[in-house]
Each structure stands twice: as structure tokens, then as C-alpha cells.
Amino acid sequence: MSEAIETRATNNNGWKPIPLPLKILFVVFILWLVGAVINLPNLVENGLPLFGNFVFGKFAAVIVLFLDILGPMLFLFGLWTRRSWAPKWAFAYIGFFILNNTVALFTVSAKIGIPQIIAPTVAALIFLAVIYWKRSYFNQTP
Q1: Residues β-bridged to residue 49
Q2: What is the pLDDT of residues 21-65, one digit of tens each?
Q3: Fewer CB within 10 Å, N or C, the chain?
């Protein structure tokens, strides 16, 4: 009896039940994670904007770890296991990312360039739109 319950629960988790737009987002987040890991040494050395100031070294590494590595990983776990907190988490960390980029647009865009701020911000807004659009997926009982 418990085997049937476990089988049914695991069939509602994982790759197969994820809607196509969220599958695409899943792949994009994996690529985002890989890019963040590859770019980490550059950001540690050259810095990154954090609410109008540039941070370097270990502090920059912590920001990248949170926004570009840990944030997507936790969302992907929530997506894979259909956790109701996953969209809320995505809105929190992606919202922080968008807010930081908005401040950077007005404070440090001359130093790093407008396209380098706008492109990831637009991508993040698209991510949020897809997550919002498919939020009902997370509310279904596995």
C-alpha cells in the first residue's frame, strides 16, 4: 500500500509533469548557473554593482553565490519537487536582482554599460512572468 502512495507521489515530481514554459526556464537557469560559476573569478577581481557601489573580492563572491547560484538552485529544487514556496522564493531573489540592476542603471551604467544592465534585467522580468503565469503548477498536490 505504501509503495503505491510513494509511486504516485514520485510520478507527480520531476521532469515529466513540469509544464513546457517551466522546462525551458529550468534549462535557462542551469545555463545561468554554469555562466555564473565560469564568470565568478572575473566578478571577484573586477567587482560588481550592489545598490550603487562596487563590491569586490569575497563580498562579490557572496553576492554571486546568492543571486546567481543559490537562488536558482533553490528555485529549481522547488520546481522539481513542486514546492509551494518556490514561486515566492523566485520573486524574492529575482526581485532583489531587478532592484539592484535598476539602481545600477542610474548609478554605475557609465562604468559597466547600459546593455550589461538592461539585458539581464529584461531576462529576469521574463523569468518572473513565466513563473507567475505557471504558478498554479506549484499549488497542485503531488
Answers
A1: 54
A2: 999 999 999 999 999 999 999 999 999 999 999 999 999 999 999
A3: N
